[in-house]
């Protein structure tokens, strides 16, 4: 009887520990070999050997909402797989304080590498602590300034400018527009700078409504856009400018369902789901400016491994966006992995690649 009791106690403790990890948004997964398909595929595992193989990598995400995030994570997984590492993801579910706690947890667990996705300056003490402990840190899309940590970002102002200027051209420089965005996120704050300058330079373009929420962004946007469409009947809204693709999805769905085909949507960021909507001639979402999200993940990992290798790395790395519009795309449905055939500059970034990485099958060719 005693032996049986101890067995059940042990199983109970294991179950409680497993549930606790799940509740904290922690997901541990073995390294996977690169895949050329969609983010939903599970690549096969391959053994990788080399002086940098076997490293434990923590990815700490503020949120993992939408297909952009899924493809970004896929890029992280693929590149870590090439180096033979092991990835553990920590998701804060849009809770910045929780993200700080997860960062501290990763430091205390002595991960070999720490990557962060979004967040804000609240992360700075933790990032500084990690750097002081010689843990390589590469930040994506957060306004953080810590010597020794590399901050990776998209050229957010340029993305905003690309979409706003095309919108201006399409509406002949005048009209009423709706803006969807949310404060408190470094990339959207940067996009807002370009938006503010644009409105100042184009007084005949009027903002008549603005809203946005990071919680369930696509659904929230759709509901609020439906209300705005009722408030402003046909002819009173010319276009919608969305500072994030999740916002663009919601706005486009509301407009399409309402049959308001006079309104066009312009967004930022790109995923396979976004591309499918933009290619649909009946969809109001006609264009977006973006960096390949899979590339973002790959480049972030490369800079982390540069640090592990002892290379000198830049404090700031900026990824150049491209403009994707329906007119440039084929009639047949394509994925973002095929987008480079139609949009110059999309995908296949060689940023962060060093000659020594050829040992791991990573080359600029």
Map the helices and strands.
Layout: H1 2-23, E1 26-29, E2 56-61, H2 66-83, E3 86-91, H3 96-108, E4 113-117, H4 124-132, E5 137-140, E6 150-154, H5 156-170, E7 175-180, H6 186-201, E8 205-211, H7 217-231, E9 239-242, H8 245-258, E10 264-268, H9 272-279, E11 285-290, H10 293-309, E12 316-319, E13 322-325
Parallel strand pairs: 2-3, 2-4, 4-5, 5-6, 6-12, 7-8, 7-9, 9-10, 10-11
Antiparallel strand pairs: 1-3, 11-13
Helix pairs in contact: 2-10, 3-4, 5-6, 7-8
Tell me the distance between the termini.
Answer: 66 Å
Strand order of the largest sheet: 1-3-2-4-5-6-12
Number of domains: 2
Shape: globular
Protein name: Sugar ABC transporter substrate-binding protein
Subcellular location: Cell envelope
Family: Belongs to the bacterial solute-binding protein 2 family.
Main location: other
Explained architecture:
The chain is 40% helix and 18% strand. It is of the alpha/beta class and 365 residues long. The chain has 2 domains: 28-154 and 293-320 and 345-360, Response regulator (Rossmann fold, 3-Layer(aba) Sandwich); 156-290, Response regulator (Rossmann fold), CATH 3.40.50.2300. Helix 2 (66-83) packs parallel to helix 10 and helix 7 packs across helix 8. The protein is globular and about 65 Å long.
């Amino acid at each position: 009887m005693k032996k049986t009791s101890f067995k059940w106690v042990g199983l109970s403790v294991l179950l409680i520990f497993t549930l606790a990890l799940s509740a904290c948004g922690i997901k541990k997964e073995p390294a996977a070999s690169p895949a050329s398909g969609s983010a939903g595929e599970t690549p096969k595992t391959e053994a990788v050997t080399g002086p940098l193989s076997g490293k434990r990598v923590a990815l700490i995400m503020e949120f993992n909402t939408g297909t952009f995030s899924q493809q970004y994570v896929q890029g992280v997984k693929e590149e870590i797989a090439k180096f033979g590492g092991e990835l553990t993801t920590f998701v804060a579910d849009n809770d910045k304080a929780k993200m700080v706690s997860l960062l501290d947890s990763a430091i205390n667990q002595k991960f070999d590498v720490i990557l962060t996705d979004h967040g804000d300056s609240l992360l700075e003490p933790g990032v500084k602590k990690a750097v002081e402990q010689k843990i390589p840190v590469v930040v994506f899309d957060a306004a953080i300034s810590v010597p020794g940590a590399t901050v990776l970002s998209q050229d957010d102002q340029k993305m905003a400018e690309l979409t706003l200027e095309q919108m201006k051209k399409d509406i002949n420089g005048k009209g009423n527009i709706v803006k969807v965005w949310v404060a408190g996120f470094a990339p959207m704050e940067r996009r807002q700078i370009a938006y503010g300058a644009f409105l100042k330079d184009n007084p005949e373009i009027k903002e008549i409504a603005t809203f946005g929420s990071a919680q369930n962004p696509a659904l929230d946007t759709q509901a609020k856009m439906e209300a705005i469409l009722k408030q402003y009947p046909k002819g009173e809204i010319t276009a919608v400018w969305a500072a994030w693709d999740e916002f663009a999805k919601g706005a486009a769905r509301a407009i399409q369902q309402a049959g308001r085909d006079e309104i066009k949507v312009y967004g930022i960021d790109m995923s396979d789901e976004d591309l499918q909507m933009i290619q649909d001639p009946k969809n109001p979402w006609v264009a977006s400016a973006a960096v390949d999200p899979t590339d973002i993940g790959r480049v972030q990992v490369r800079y982390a491994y540069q640090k592990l290798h002892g290379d000198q790395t830049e404090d700031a790395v900026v990824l150049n966006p491209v403009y994707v519009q329906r007119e440039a795309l084929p009639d047949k449905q394509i994925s973002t992995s095929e987008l480079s055939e139609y949009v110059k500059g999309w995908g296949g970034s060689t940023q962060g690649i060093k000659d020594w990485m050829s040992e791991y099958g990573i080359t600029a060719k």
